[in-house]
Amino acid sequence: QVQLVESGGGLVQPGGSLRLSCAASGLIISNYAMKWYRQAPGKERELVARISSTSGTTNYLDSVKGRFTISRDNTKNTAYLQMNSLKPEDTAVYYCNADWSLFSYWGQGTQVTVSS
Questions:
Q1: Could you tell me the CA-to-CA distances from 64 to 11, 47, 67, 69, 89 in Å, in that order?
Q2: What is the spatial distance between Cα 79 and Cα 74, in angstroms, rounded to a whole number?
Q3: For residues 94-109, b (16+ Cβ closer than 10 Å) or e, as one string?
Q4: Average pLDDT over residues 75-85
């Protein structure tokens, strides 16, 4: 059974940092492109960051470039999203996604709230 479990969300003040983790079981993440999405209330889910399975190439939503960093530790079967200089508009539920060919798996999401 495949599971992706996100952790690390919470309440943080503007300018603060959080590190999200996505621990995978039932699959080997080195075979998968790993992605982080987010969905704010009343908005569509959007792709925040992606890291490829082979070269480790990363891509980011324009609004998070220079602030967020996606990474993966294949030895721990875990992906990460380091979020710095957080802004209120980053408030959303963040979801981890593992994607390979016809296979796509999602975590349950973790809430990130940026507020003073």
A1: 18, 11, 5, 9, 10
A2: 8
A3: bbbbbeeeeeebebeb
A4: 97
